[in-house]
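Example record

The entry below shows one chain as it appears in the dataset: sequence first, then structure tokens.
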Amino acid sequence: PQGSEEAKAFVNAFLKRSMPKKKDEAIQDILTRKAVVLEHYSKKKTKQKRKKTKGFTAKQRRELRLFEIEPEQQRYAIFLPLHELWKQYIRDLCHGLKPDAQPHMVQSKLLKADLHGAIVTVTKSKCPSYVGITGIILQEFKHVFKIITKEDKLKVVPKLNNVFSLEIDGFISYIYGSKFQLRASERSAKKFKLKGTIDL
């Protein structure tokens, strides 16, 4: 068994290790009261700041021409597989497009669907030169559709003052461009009114 001096030295050394921030006088004061509350000092972890990945600005995207389709790629035949994928996507979205499907249900699904790959025709327009343009939608922006025609011509058709028709499996749907001036990502969350005055 240890002697009293050895025990005292051990306790002093133990308390110094356990309470490194306290001075010797404070430790001796604690010992006189014969009540010791040991404290735990944890090392502060330095938080690593996450670096946010910055995307391109609109100006940089224009300079890099990220959304421009190269002239050699502007061919109708190249995008026919995209149209086939779009048709399958719409069939899945509308649960098969069965003959007994409700037209308003199909219409509401199409209003929120992604139209990249759809074949559309301009049926009405305040500008007669747009009427009759038919092709696959390659890009949809807030105010325009970029359409590739069978003649391999890329047409930029504004949504404003134009009516587009879209046909799939016998269902014909009309898109009133003036009420459709939204980005594709915004349309999916928008609530469209089923009734209302519609004009060019």
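Notes for this example: Helices lie at 4-18, 24-33, 58-64, 80-93, 103-112, 184-187. The domain at 72-189 is CATH 2.30.30.210 (SH3 type barrels.).
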